Amino acid sequence: MAVLIQLRDAHKRFGDQVLLDGANVSLVDDVKVGFVGRNGAGKSTLLRILLGEEDVEKGDVIHHPTLRIGYLRQHDPFREGESALDFLMRDSGAPDWQCGQVAGQFELKGEYLEGPVKALSGGWQTRVKLAALLLHDPNLLMLDEPTNFLDLRTQILLEHFLKDFNKAALIVSHDRAFLKATCSQTLELSKGQLTMFPGKIHDFLEFREERREHDRRVNATVIAKQKQLKQFIDKNRANASTASQARSKAKQLEKLQTVELEVDEPTVRIRAPRVQPRQGTAVRCDKLAIGYPDHRVAEDISLEIEHGQRAAIVGDNGQGKTTMLRTLVHSLEPLEGTLKWGHGIEIGTYAQHVYSSLDERQTILEHLEYASDPETTRQDVLAMAGSLLFRDEAIHKKIKVLSGGERARVCMASLLLGTANVLVLDEPGNHLDVETVEALAEALRLYKGTVIFTSHDRHFMARVATNVIEVRDGRVRNYFGSYDTYCEAVEKEVSEGERQRNAAAGKQNSKNNSGSKNSRQNQKEQRKTGKELKNLERKIARLDDEKRELNEQLLTETDPGEAVRLHEQVKAIEVELSEAEEKWLELSDF
Predict the structure, then answer these.
(1) Of residues 337 and 231, which shows the higher confidence score?
(2) Arithmetic mean of pLDDT, 46-70
(3) What's the chain's average pLDDT?
(4) Fold identical between 3-204 and 281-481?
(5) What is the CATH number of domain 281-481?
(6) In the chain, at which end, N or C, are there fewer CB atoms within 10 A of the end residue's CB?
(7) SS3 label, residue 30
């Protein structure tokens, strides 16, 4: 197992902010790592350091001689008029047949491969960039928020690509579902330190919360003990007969130290607008047609959304999700048919065309106070701003100096502080980190109004959605199933397409050409697999029990040394458990 990149004792500042403070990490040649941390922690800066585009102030960045980095470019590398195939040949120097073969892994064919690449949507252009990466034969992929603006189908294609990619990857993402599907380890950047966790994102988040809860319990015990000792010392130090005992207690007091809680930022708390629940139909569409004067996107739309529902709009990029949302909020007029909102509706909108039209003369604080519910206090405003990363002096910044991402967060804050009883949200999770997305999902779940939204974050969609509306092939209709069911259906479609391509390319070898001998061999292998599965199930159950018992001990343990030992045991069991579960899944597909 070769170390491809090693960062040793790295220090880096940006103004007064410490991004790296003696940070250390090693990336090895066969591990895919999910990279997480709060917005502004320095994740993108670290990627630039590893790429050699930025230097550390102190420390070492060591590259293995065989290192070949594939970096997913965010900028547009395409020339005017060139096709995807032209770009792949120019970028890689590979022949057209090889470029076409790799492009096929991402369903790039026909007009998508041979037509103008600049005419493709952002999601399809990302597929072209991924095919270009693969043609360069990298042994380490670096992907910075690769799922932003990718539809579900393209995300699944990317997941499959990464699962088949048998080399290393470092992936920055706020999408928990994507990280869970692709990465076996988790790297966190917090307060200038890098911590590698030998497990998936959900195990890491659970472990981190358990560790913080344990530290809080230990601190509570230590503080209570400190209070007792101080009371004894104060009472007895002036008394000659008990002065020696008081000095002994003072020595004990010096040794008692609380644990520094590993919380890199204040806990994110977001509240949705305070509204009264309503009954009946919020909006009704009848024989609606949507689109533009020269292009009809969808027609014959007849559906209703009830008050209190959280309707997720789903579909591939380019099918018309955003067009549907814009029509609902009257940013686009229907081409035909009727769209009618119920009585007493107040719509709050979050979309790019909204946050690009803020009053640039105002400060963040002025805008939020102007937009908020009259009953909202200054403290409520500051708390919401803080949750969306505007703290201390940042609250007094003029809107004209804010980046696009910062303006988006200002719009989100003002919307949540308002009085809207219907929220229409286009990609609300963009520009937010994992913790803030989770807090937003919880706020929307508790919201008494109606939510109509679209997002590329599957964890967020599954947490929030109560019903699903699909935009596909010129139609918009209710999808009769949960969001998880919809994801499973798309996964099945993608997998079937991959099987057909593999068969057409001659990559799928038949196991039935060897006659009865091969059949007997298959039966023997199936019996062997069944036995392994039963053994693994017993092992997984045993490890689960051990992990639960250790966690229960950990939550009540007050000795810091013993707590560290228990932590290490839990960590070792989680690694063994993860390996056993992955092996079980692998054999289950046999």
Answers:
(1) 337
(2) 91
(3) 84
(4) yes
(5) 3.40.50.300
(6) N
(7) coil
CA distance readout (Å), 255 to 175, 229, 251, 252? 43, 12, 7, 5
pLDDT per residue as tens digits for the range 250-268: 888 787 776 565 544 455 6
Q: Which two tokens stand for residue 406?
A: 């910062």
Question: What band does 578 get if pLDDT is binned at 50, 70 and 90?
Answer: confident
What is d(CA 378, CA 417) in angstroms, rounded to the nearest whole number? 11
DSSP 479-534: ESS-HHHHHHHHHHHHHHHHHHHHHHTT-S--S-TTHHHHHHHHHHHHHHHHHHHH
Non-local (6+) Cβ contacts of 27 within 8 A are: 3, 4, 5, 6, 33, 140, 168, 170
Residue 26: what pLDDT?
Answer: 92
Question: Is the domain defined by 3-204 classed in CATH 3.40.50.300?
Answer: yes
Amino acid symbol at 389: L
Structure tokens at 224: 């209570």
Residue 399 vs residues 25, 30, 388, 424, 432: alpha-carbon distances, Å: 38, 45, 15, 23, 18
Terminus-to-terminus CA distance in the chain, angstroms? 27
Cα 299–301–305 angle (5° rounding)?
150
